[in-house]
Model the fold of this input.
Amino acid sequence: MKRHLLTLAIAASLLPLAAQAAPRVYGQLNLSIDYMDASVTPTQDGWALNSNSSRVGVKGAEKLNEEYTAVYKLEWAVNGDVGGADLMARERYIGIKHYQWGTMRLGYIDAPFKNAEDEIDIFNDLANLDMDKFIYGQNRLANSINYVSPKFLDVFGANITIQPGEGQTATPSSTNANGNENHLADAYSAAFSYEDDSLYLSYAMDKEVMDTRKAILKPDPMAFTPTEMDAMRFNARYKIGDMIISGMYQMAEPTKKGGADTIDQEDSFIISGAYKMDMITVRGEVLMSTQDMVMDVGSTNKSVDTTLIGVGVDYAMTENTKVFGNVAMGKKEVTAAAGTAKDYDTSYLGFGTEVRF
Done:
C-alpha cells in the first residue's frame, strides 16, 4: 500500500512537467552535385557541391490555459558542404496563439509576401535555381510584428506583418522613401488566401519593404543598391488527382523612384506543375521576368528579360529521405538604353539528396 502511495505522489509531482511539451529539434540536410555553364562568367563554370538551404532548428508550444498557447521557434542555416561560417540566422520568433482569434508573433519572420508563393517554385531552396535568384519577393523581415489568422469558414486566411523603421537612414533618400520615421509600421507585408481540398488562391503585397538582393542579374554582374519596394503577387494552385498545377504573377517597383543602381520595375510570371507516381514525382517550371534597371540617373539604363525553363525528378526513398535530379536552361537578354543588346545563356544540371528529421 505504501509503495502505491509513493508511486502516486511521484506521478503527481511530475504532472506540471508533463503538461509542458518538450521542444522539438528538427532540420534538413540537402546537398547536391551541380554543374553550371554560364556563357559570360567562366569562374562559375564547372562542377560544385552545394548545400541547399540546409538548416537545424528548435520549436515548440506550451499550453498556458484553455484559450492561450505560447509558441516559439529558433532556426539556423548550416553549411553542409564546407566548414567555417555556420549557424546563420533563419526564422525565429516567440508568440501567443489564441484558439479562436489566431496567433501574434514577434521576431525575425518570413514575410507574408514570401509565404504566399505556396508550391509554385519546384526548385525551392536550390543554390542556383531557387526563384529568389531571379525575382523579387523572398524576404525574411527583421523586427517583425506578425499576425496569422485562423482559417475562417475553414478556407479563408490572413497573414500580416508590420515592421518598425529600426536601422533605416535618419533622413529620406532616393531609395529610402521615409528614412526612420519612428512609426510602428514603416513597412508592411500582407497575404490573404483561400484554400480548400483542391484549390489555393492568394493575393499578397509588400509596402516599403527593403530589398537587399545582390547581383540578381547574374551572369551580368552589376552594383545593386538596397531599395524600399512595393509589390503585388497573385498565386493559384489546383490539384487534380496526383497532379498539381500552379501559377504566379507579380509586379514590383521602388517605393520612391529615381535612385541609381535600382530596379525601376519588375513584371514576373511563373507556371509550374508536378505529377506524383507512387514514389516518383516529376516536376516542371517556366519562369519569365522583365526588369527595367536604372543604372545611372539620366545616363545608362538597362532592361533585362529573364527566362528559365527546367524539369526535375524526385524519388522518395522514405517519408523523410529523397534523391533528386534537375536540369534547366536560363537565358537573359540585356538591352541598354542605346539599343545595344546582349544575350547570356546558362545551363544547369544537378543531382542530390535530402534528409529531413
Observations:
- The first strand starts at residue 24 and ends at 38.
- The two ends are 45 Å apart (CA to CA).
